[in-house]
Amino acid sequence: MQEIIKKQGVITIKADLGLIGLAVMGENLVLNMENHGFTVAVHNRTPEKIDQLLQGRGAGKNIIGAYTIEELASQLKTPRKVMLMVKAGEPVDLFIERLLEVLEPGDIIIDGGNSLYSDTIRRTKLLEDRGLFYVGAGVSGGEEGALTGPSIMPGGSKEAWPHIQTIFQAIAAQVDGEPCCEWIGSDGSGHYVKMVHNGIEYADMQLIGEAYFLMKHLLGFNAEEMQEVFEEWNQGELDSYLIEITGHILGKVDQDTGQPLLELVGDGAGQKGTGKWTSQEALDLGVAAPTIAEGVFARIISGAYDQRELAAKAFPFKTPQVDLDPAEFVEAVRQALFASKICAYSQGFDLLAQASKEYDWNLNLGEIAKLWRGGCIIRAQFLQHITDAYDQNPDLENLLLAPYFQETLKGNQESWRKVVALAVEQGLPVPGFASALAYFDSIRHPYLWTNLVQAQRDYFGAHTYSRRDRPGAFHTQWQLGDKVVTSDEV
Ligand code: 6PG
Fold first, then answer.
1. 425, 322 in Cβ contact below 8 A?
2. Rounded Cα–Cα distance for residues 309 and 317 (Å)
3. 121-157: per-residue pLDDT in tens?
4. Residues with Cβ < 8 Å from 59, sequence gap 6 or more?
5. What would the mean pLDDT of 52-68 be, rounded to a whole number?
6. 437 contacts 417 by C-beta, under 8 angstroms
7. Integer Cα distance of 263 and 254 in angstroms
């Protein structure tokens, strides 16, 4: 795949792609590409990083150092393809500005970071207006995935796809012989899909955290016992990367103290913003995604140390006193976790469906679930059921309604309710399990309390209401003294 150009007696090897940003993700992607036979030119703001790569993990490989942006551009085959693996936000804009000075119409810039989709929409337009192409590619899989096969979600200028498809599909994870990388759609769709992936990731992690918390407090299980549970769960329908790594984490012992390392880890959870963006988008588009949002709120509460310390003194936590059959309760928690997980994914896919309409992306939801079967953080056997559900019915209103999920929820709901009720009774917070259950119960209830909300709105603000027995918009003078009132069509 090397294009050797002889110019004034000097042999120059042109690279298939240029990559800017040699932090771990960037460096691993370079090595992954090289490993698949591609020559990569690399640039980094601090040149030491380039030297480190060339002399270290990249020594003897088809990797070319570019110490300036000009040099990088001159080392690339045309149309030039430059991938940015830099921090989302301003650094992306700054590099685009620099690249626009050296690239030509027809060249392609790819942003592989966790950029906000609206920034990607803006940048796609900026480049296309100048005759270049832009791709916002969500890349999931962490450091290891970047090296061995991530899930890649590219979207933006469709014209760019034939030029990058071979590289991206070669380096992506493969499941059943299919690459976990497919064209998503126009402008910001790739980054949007990655954002929702991360929102679901927040919910998934929250739910697994609650399962661990319940076994710890209600069964008094130690890390080793819980490791066994997660290992067992990973053999069944919960089989997934996050369940697998949870088992590994529980198995680690701290060298200094001999204690399970997890029990020494501080509980203030960090976040970089993609879960928050997903929740904000859900609110903006009017999609109910409470379990995803609870994942974000739970992290926020966990970090509110001062408030937590005062509240812990004001309302001391009492150690639960329950007598449970361990095997039975573990199974009930597993069922609650799986049911809640289905709700979280339903919320995420509902958001994707609405976004597809709102932004005119024509997203293929079954295909997206397929891309997440391998390489990414939420990879799971379970995603095949989502693909199947959309294959059977591309217009599915909500994932909960697909036959497989209906059956599972019906089978699991009794345990789910028992687990949530017991946790509430014992003062153990389970915002993920409980919000998912409330979502499920709300969505299936034929007549909600929101009739009262409508009446209240009409009472104080004359916002009008609809009637169940006739069409139209109505207003009532609720505040009048009379018991019998009129419902006036407006
Ligand atoms: C992935 C991850 C990756 C990253 C998140 C972590 O798909 O590979 O989601 O994107 O680990 O940004 O997000 P938080 O720091 O917000 O938990």
1. no
2. 12
3. 999 999 999 999 999 999 999 999 999 999 999 999 9
4. none
5. 97
6. yes
7. 9
Cβ(189) – ligand 1 distance below 6 Å: no
The token duo for 331 is: 């199974």
Q: For the residues 95-120, what does the mean pLDDT come to?
A: 98
pLDDT of res. 31: 98
CB of residue 142 inside a 6 A radius of ligand 1: yes
Instruction: Answer whether 17 contacts ligand 1 (Cβ < 6 A).
Output: no
pLDDT confidence of residue 11: 53
Kindly report the backbone phi and psi dihedral angles of residue 217, in degrees, each rounded to the nearest multiple of 5, phi listed first: -90, -30
Domains of the chain: 3-187 (3.40.50.720), 195-444 (1.10.1040.10), 450-489 (1.20.5.320)
* Positions marked active-site: 194, 201
C-alpha dist (Å) from residue 341 to 34, 408, 432: 37, 11, 9
Interval 273-292 mean pLDDT: 98
Q: Which token pair is 13? A: 């090897």
pLDDT recorded at residue 379? 96
Structure tokens given for 65: 């150092």
In the chain the first and final C-alpha atoms are separated, in Å, by: 71
